[in-house]
Amino acid sequence: MVQRSDIAWCPGCGNFPIRDVLEKAFQELPIPIKNIVLTSGIGQAAKMPHYLEVNYFNGLHGRSLPLAVGIKLARPDLTVIAYSGDGCNYGEGGNHFIHTMRKRLDITILTSNNQVYGLTKGQSSPTTDFAMKNPLSPQGNQNIPLNPVALAVTMGAPFVARGFAGERDHLKELIKEAILFKGTALVDILQPCVTFNKINTYQWFKERVFKLERPLTDRYEALKMADLWGEKIPIGVIYRNVNAPCREGKTLFNAEITDDNIAAQLKMRCVMMR
Amino acid sequence: MEFNVVIGGEAGQGAFSVELELTEILSELNYYFFATKNYMSRIRGGHNFHMLRIADVPVHALSGQQWNMVIALDKETETRHKPNLHEMGIYLSRELTTEIEKESREKFKFVTSSNTIMVGVILAVIGVSLEKALEATEPGNREYLKKGFEFADRWKLAGTYPIEAKAGAHCKFDGNQALSFGALLGGCQFMAGYPMTPATSIMHYFATIAQEIPVHFEQAEDEISAINMALGASYAGIRSMVATSGGGFALMQEGVSLAGMTETPIVITVAQRPGPATGLPTRTEQGDLNFVLHAGHGEFPRIIFAPGSIDETIALARKSFELADRYQTPVFFLTDQYFADSVQIVEDDVETEIRRRSYTVFDNAYKRYCLTEDGISPLTFPGLSDALVRFDSDEHDEEGKITEDLNLRVRMVEKRLKKLELLRKDFVPPTFYGSMDAESFILCWGSNKLIVKEALEKLTQEGMNAAVLHFAQVYPLTVDMIAPYGLTAKKLICVENNARGQFAGLLKRELGLDVAHPVLKYNGECFTVAELYQTLKSILR
Question: Rounded to two decimals, what is the model's pTM?
């Protein structure tokens, strides 16, 4: 078992409740733990797999998604969850974020979104609010924030949700639903950084978040909802399309390549494209 | 006897198709031949040319002799290739090929059938009987081929360069096809890639066979993604490969390091083309040896193969997946555009037994990075049992958990590097041609093998005292690999397609060998036998 004291997060970090929620969700899901694989990148959130009893491939910064894609294509029987922070999933891995959703695979993407680079000590992340001051943007962040939820809806992800680390039971149900959903699912998790983000605190979120009563199923309505940020912040399933086709990988593991398959290759014409 | 022909034209005019069809039929008719191409980085226009050498003995290189036949599909061919036409040679001028195209359009409604007509002309020139030629041709193309023989008769070309078909049972491959086939034999079932010349046809191969065979090809959004997908698939239990060229490999480097740290088996093909940056995208070079040697931050073992023939490529591609698994480290395949795009036949029996990945199932006491005597920890895959499979890019403990225990760090570094010691004993020896007591040794690696070999044969016939040593494994280089040859007492010549003699440099660093005469070519084209023969002769004299 993981000792709390061995965990590399700051006391009070928003990742602790997310860890507890994940552990509980795994216990409650009708999936054997041996069939669950977590991939992660680099950052404080990306250390998550180390603090759970689960299979994982903790890869490089920004690369949790292509790892997840490779695993899912190779072994469709595994339940694949890519877990990382906002810097990893939306910054360094931003290109992968866009293109992974186009692949229509049954992968769950979870992001601890604290709107700041924690491990490198407080610089702007892709989701940092405009004008927020930090060591590398002493005059205030000059970039407008990336909206991962709106982007996911735009890219055609069939399950897009936002959770909040301060609403554990709600978050747990969201994560379970996302994992069980057949198709690419995103849960962007509002995760207060108690050390570097003095604006988007637990209190700040508590005053603003409201729970959606039911999932939105109209993409354009969902986009409007996804756009809501500031005084009111929606949490819950922002978009769900149960009719979106999900791509099934083919069985490769232990699948036999026959001698006939090989013999046929010897008669192949030379490939023209270079 | 041999017959050398060049077909030049704009991209999209059909020279490519002539080569493809002709090599198919020549193979069917049991001819020895070698075909390669020189093409521009464009889809239409420009000037591409396709070179074929047809002979009554095995040939695996461009002869570099004057052309016996030049076929001009454009004006450029006349200025560029006609000056190198043998005085007795055949010149199919643009006027004549236009006549072919015109009749093709009139008689068959398509200009594309003129490709087959030109194939027919060439077959007639080398003395193939119409009957045999028709038999070897796809039924739909037979009318066109017949027309080609008519043209040959009309222009009195039939049988002017008779070549006997003497090849026995054989297979026909281009370099990329051989590599892909070898990978399949090695149990590779997953490939991810981003198209890049000259590696793209490896992706085409996998995408094509994936329709019928349990393998998967995934086109990635970039090369970073491609290598990470392949590592993910390998982690999940499937032997995996990526293929790219220098620029794409530059993007993959962090993934190479990730494979080294997480000890994930992977095979990485780098089909070289001239750099730096975009360089000459469709030409050849051996300029990325140093790059591949040093790619990826940090210290970890690697193996680099640079095969020199089709059969060696198939055998080593197959072996590379076993080695990647055995040593749990990246294995590189370093080829180049020349090799990738050259079509050759192999008469030797190709070993076609598939090497499947074997695996063990462990209980929940399993430790991914268990410290062992030889540095190799048992590998297994997720979902097979209660054993949790934990890979980590951070320094990690035996279970695969992140650690900053610096004593453990030292043990883990040593564990990873111990594998290098095993690799040093498990090498592919270089191939030797010639006499052991030769005073001069010509060293080479990768695709130059059979060009150098043929040049040596010519030199030996003239009484020159030299031998050839070709390295298909360019890293690690070990003393045992060269022990039989007493190289320190020899005059060493090193033939490479780069400007700085990268392999000679590696021989110096790893084995303390001093190359006296580098023979370098870096204009984007391969060596020809005649050119190499001349250069080597002046050195050996």
Answer: 0.97
